[in-house]
Amino acid sequence: MLFVIASQPAAGAQSATALILRDVGPGMVDVDGEWQFHTGDDMAWADPGYDDSAWEHIKADDTWGAQGHPAYAGFAWYRRHLEIIRSAAGAQHLAILMPPVDDAYELYWNGQKIGSQGQLPPKPVWYYGHRQSLALVLSPSGATNGVLAVRVWKAPLNSTDPASVGGLNALPIIGDAQAIAAKVGQGDFSRMRSGLYGRAISFFFLLIGTVSFLAWLQDRSKSLYLWFAVWLVAKIALFYLSSDRVIERISATAFGCSLLILHTIENCSIFFLLLYLFNLIENRRLRRWTWIIIGVNVGCGLADAIVLLFWVHAGLTLQWLDAIFTIVWTLCQLFVFVLLYQGFRLKPDVSRKLVAIAAFLVYAHEILRIGSIQGQRFTGWTLYSRMSVPLFHIAGTGITSRQILETFLLAALAYALTRYAMEQRRHTAAIEMELKSAQEVQQIMIPEALPKVAGYAIESIYQSALEVGGDFFQIIPLADDSTLVVLGDVSGKGLKAAMNVALIVGTLRTLAEFSSSPAAMLNGLNRRLVGRLQGGFATTLAFRLDPFGDCTLANAGHLPPFLNSSEIVLEPSLPLGIDPDTEYENTQIALNNEDRLTLYTDGVLEATNKEGELYGFERVAALLADRPDAASIAATARAFGQEDDITVLTITRLPVGQLTEAL
Fold first, then answer.
1. Domains detected in the chain
2. How far is CA 371 from CA 156, 364, 365, 586, 614, in A?
3. What pLDDT, on the 0 to 100 scale, is given for residue 133?
4. Burial class (CB in 10 A: 0-12, 13-18, 19+), 455
5. How far apart are alpha carbons 118 and 130 in whole angstroms?
6. Is this model's pTM higher than 0.90 or not?
7. Which one of 17, 37, 578, 590 has the minimum C-beta count within 10 Å?
């Protein structure tokens, strides 16, 4: 072991005392006592023969800011005179364990540089919380009178630094290299154990965040899952950024910039998370203010990160900018309370109320904690330090109030999102039932088996899109041996469109019992539909066919039919259900043997390819020029890119009296 015998005046330095370490063995000893200290910088101060008797005395276990040099930034030197006497059975290899130094340093033993932390100006780089073990080589004789000199540089103070910072704040330790290594390992283990709670919470953050992100990938319309995942990832990144393993490996500048960026992401994601969770996203004014706050938050965060990049050369101007950006950035977090207030006004369920309570506590605690550290060298406030102390320990792991509140918030959010997922599942099931009902109604409106019509061959094809549409057609035998053929398309989709189709078909069949005029039936149908389609309308094309080829048609805003390869020219007309005073007119045409009428809905016309190009009128005209059958027309439109329901009906004139079953 090491024995500290006494301190005595060092040769050539009347007021400097030497720490005598006799019979150095396999142990360790603190290099305590009074060190010589001097602000400024001169490389001659590393020389063991330099006379430092006029230097002031200072303790190494506290900062220079707490010992008469408040808020001092720049260079300073520590010197400690040592006399180390090694016994024959003593340690073969000695080492010195240097504590974290604020901010960068070089270590000299008898004028020789034996190690450093970071890089000193003109291109400074420094780290937080970095300890290191350095070899201490003695003379072969076993006795060494020497001087341990530490050249320290402190970066300019930022808005959160107290006045009591700078230099050494713990004692260096000299001892057997193996014993020093064991102490380092013991310290690493203690820090790892103290962070077990944070690691466990981070694991759950990661697990829940992954599930949430996968849920968003499955349904991109559920933005709530995305922002919850982003918030969790930011929290995980902040935890690992603040861990000792990371802090000791990245520069203070990189650490500060990363911290600002991650906190900014966390703030932005919680804003959107609350917007979607409390269904506030439809509030245009609140949504606009959210974007404004996010813009200010991101702008101040990035600006403050830029200030940190030039911090060494900042001067007073950039220090004030840092304070201003930090204050505005912190005030932006108050917008969380605005969102929580607006959410509470909507009387949310219990799960969302728990989120509101937890978020209020977390961000009130965070704003108070961060706010108390700003300008603390002027205010003297110590609230930040007290709020960062663990409230209790579990198996050696300290639990802080911040960790407790963030765990509460995580649990509340997980519960709320579980409830949200269940609500969405029930909503999806209800929609699926609605679509199924609409499909059943639509299948009734589009008959699978068509009646036999004397003198005509009728082909039909119906290809539904992903959603239920409003296409329909009917073939109704009339009392005078003629046949009514009606094809139409109701605006909208889903059960609403299907119910409107049911209304139209039922009314049409009733009118067909009293009139055989297509125009009269459309006029009556229009008057009955005005105000009953819930703001919608219906385009309809009606034909009356007699066995001898005479055809009477009336159109209510539908696409004109084709006769063979040419489109029939019709007068423009309004769809049904818009104007009760609209009067529709009959148009007479004669069909010869083998003539073909082609009727279709806009699902053919509006087919869209991958480039976003519509099938269009020109392609329809070119397609129908060859008189294809109904199935070929529908297949061509579907291959181009089906977007809506496709219904095609072809009516081909046969010789008089021939009876052909519709295909």
1. 3-189 (2.60.120.260), 195-425 (1.20.1070), 446-660 (3.60.40.10)
2. 20, 10, 10, 80, 58
3. 86
4. buried
5. 9
6. no
7. 590
